[in-house]
Amino acid sequence: MVPLRRNHVRDELFLAAAVLPYRDRCLRDGGMGGEYGLDLARMGPHTSADDPSRYRPAEEAEHWRGRDPIARLETRLRDRGLLTEDDITTTAAEAEEYAAGLRTRLAEDPALDPLALLDHVFSAPTPQLIEQRAALRAELEGS
Known about the structure:
single chain; mainly alpha; two-stranded parallel sheet
């Protein structure tokens, strides 16, 4: 029988404590698979057009906000002296620099070769694709 376990996860330590023994048991039993269900609470909207207040009461969102795994991990690391304010400031600045660069790259128009459009339609070009490529090339060279 394939075991099934379900947990509501908002804590990284709980997740490790719950999943790792399950994984070890599955591996010990000759690699026997199983299913492990994790229920996750979304903190933000699904998209920028979504309004979570339509389907989730504010109290529920606040309840889970207090269990934010990133904030809880930060508290644990601070309490153990493994994370300082400088670490947080430096990491936040590096993350913002990376995100700003990513936003810039995403907003740029890439240099595209229109003829490359037909490169990977099939594993080998068909006579029709060869014809279409020639027609496209002629049109591009004519304009």
